[in-house]
Structures are given as structure tokens and as C-alpha cells.
Amino acid sequence: MVTTGKIHGNYCGGGWTRGRNIPERKMHTVPYVAPTDALDRACMAHDEDCSRGGCSARGDRRLRNQALAIAARGRQNAPVALLIAAAMTLTEPTRKR
């Protein structure tokens, strides 16, 4: 697992889920926290994937594609969306599932 801490919102960042610095596999042990925006919702879905037996290449691709779509819309958080997309591109080949 890569631990980076908070990158954006309540769900974006390695080891950052539900607004806390905890591994994604433990996300259901703490109370639900609402995502802050579309990018954070995409990260929440990725965390859900990671909580079920580790992160998957498919989940990484999904988050990458959603982050690229958010960046393409020119939102204020486009730079962080591109950062997340790049991170998913780099980590996807390392996934075991």
C-alpha cells in the first residue's frame, strides 16, 4: 500500500479515507463522511474497491478516467484531478487483481 495522506477532500489520497488517515481496507470501521465533490466521489468509489481485497487495476482505470473527465471540464480542481489520474496510471500495472 502506498501511503500519501490527504490529497483532496475526504477520500483522495493513499491511506486517506472518510476524512481520516487510515488504510482503505479499514474504511468501514469509521463513520461515513460525505464526499466534497465529484472528484472526491470518484475517490470514494476507488476506496470502496480497495476495501474489498485490495485495490484493483480496474478500479484504478475507473478513477483515472473519471479524474481525466473532471480535469477536462476545466474545474478549479483540475490540477489535482490530473495528479490523481497520473498516480492511477503509474499504480495500475502493479495491481494483483
In words, what does this structure look like?
- There is one protein chain.
- The chain is mainly α and 97 residues long.
- The chain has a domain at 36-94.
- The protein is built from three helices and no strands.
- It has helices spanning 38-51, 57-72, 78-91.
How are the secondary structure elements laid out?
Elements: H1 38-51, H2 57-72, H3 78-91
Helix pairs in contact: 1-2, 2-3
Poorly predicted regions: none
Number of strands: 0
Distance between the termini: 14 Å
How many H/I helical runs? Answer: 3
Morphology call: globular
- Radius of gyration, in Å, reads 12 Å
Specify the helix fraction band: 40-55%
Strand content: under 5%
Helix/sheet category: mainly alpha
Largest sheet: none
